[in-house]
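Customer escalation, tier 2.

The customer says the design service returned an amino acid string that "doesn't look like it belongs to this structure." They asked us to rerun it and document both sides in this ticket. The original structure tokens are below, unchanged.
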């Protein structure tokens, strides 16, 4: 898995690219939270749920069905978010899907149960450049392995997303000036 902060990077980059005038703040914050929520399944390690179980890490909460349910929830509460149902549902769905994609780009673990419940198979993408993050915060913050993960995520997640977001922001800004 990526660390939780890096899982929020795609939503943060979208906020930079579009600006918060286009994404209502409540919706933006909800999307950030939902970009991290799939990893709440890691609690299973501490309560005896086997990793390979559908309730285990990278199981049900890393599936497209879960992403659709989250998007449906956001669409349902869209009036409270001060956004359209379509925007709310789509943004939260994409936030969860970005989590799934980032985990499938890591080089460790059992893979991601993208198609659960239709298949128990777990998948990685063919290219896995991101160093898998240790589950232990102590290992993450105090070891060379944690440093390798941070450098890997900066290189393969943050840098490309932020460069793309800034380029989009510049393009959108130029387009507005021409009107």
């Amino acid at each position: 898995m990526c660390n939780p902060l890096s899982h929020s990077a795609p939503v943060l980059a979208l906020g930079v690219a579009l600006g918060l005038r286009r994404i209502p703040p409540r919706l933006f914050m909800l999307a950030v939270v939902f970009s991290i929520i799939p990893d709440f399944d890691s609690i299973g390690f501490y309560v005896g749920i086997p990793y390979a179980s559908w309730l285990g890490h990278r199981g049900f909460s890393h599936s497209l069905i879960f992403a659709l349910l989250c998007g449906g929830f956001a669409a349902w509460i869209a009036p409270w978010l001060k956004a359209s149902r379509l925007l709310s549902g789509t943004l939260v769905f994409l936030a969860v899907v970005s989590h799934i994609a980032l985990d499938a780009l890591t080089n460790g673990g059992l893979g991601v149960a993208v198609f659960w419940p239709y298949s128990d198979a777990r998948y990685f993408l063919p290219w896995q450049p991101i160093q898998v993050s240790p589950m232990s915060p102590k290992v993450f913050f105090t070891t060379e392995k944690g440093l390798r993960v941070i450098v890997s995520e900066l290189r393969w997640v943050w840098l490309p997303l932020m460069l793309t977001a800034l380029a989009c922001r510049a393009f959108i800004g130029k387009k507005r000036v021409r009107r």
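Tier 2 assessment: The sequence is consistent with the input. The mean pLDDT is 92. The CA atoms of residues 140 and 153 lie 13 Å apart. Sent an explanation to the customer and offered a walkthrough call.
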